[in-house]
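Fig. S4 source data, part A: sequence.
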Amino acid sequence: MNVGVTPSTAVVIEDDEIVRELLVDILDGAGLHTIAVDNGADGVRAVVEHNPLITTVDINMPGIDGLEATRRIRARSSTHIIVVSALTDEADAVLALSAGADDFVAKPFRAREFRARIDSVLRRVRETEAPSASAARTEDDADAVLQHHDLVVDRSTRVVRRAGVEVGLTRTEFDILVALLQTGRRVRAKSDLVMVVRGDRQDAAPITDVDLRTMETHIANLRRKLAEDSLAPRYIETVRGVGYRLTEVDSA
């Protein structure tokens, strides 16, 4: 997978001309140079060629559908993938995120709310790739490296290792994991984690049931990549009806 992305570029993969033009307008308005295509095969090629920061993908398209396009893109790029679909069942969001998407937006959507999601991605990237001098990592910077059992997360390089072996996470999965590590045994509600992913903007789009189901899928994908035992989790516990927290640390 390519780690670097082009921070000023976006790709839109959408066969509906009206929706495609709307997405281009929103992304261009956010300061991105946008390449738009109307099918999955051309979309995969555009991502490979331009390695964009953000890619939007429709699910129902001729030829390669959006889910397969998302799988192929995720295998080649770390671009932030937003699936934009008229399919609004919970299963559709789960399939999209399991294929490698970072976010799921149901059609129809409000331009202002979609722009808020884009601004959130841009804000998170700027905070990650352009840290202030005072935030630069040193050997004594305890906040740069977080650890829980044999799980080690380096915030400065965005590298995660489990038992010494690097684990590949999406940007969203990484941010969720860091949030849980920073708060330890304190429970983080699903809605709280949604706000973390959005950049803690209280004026962003309202949190929907789809957002909450999306967070559940992110957690499930994160656990799978960390090789968690669902019956005896080593890293992340579910607090039923509330949210998630870290497991206890052995006192021995």
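Fig. S4 source data, part B ends here. The CA atoms of residues 113 and 205 lie 5 Å apart.
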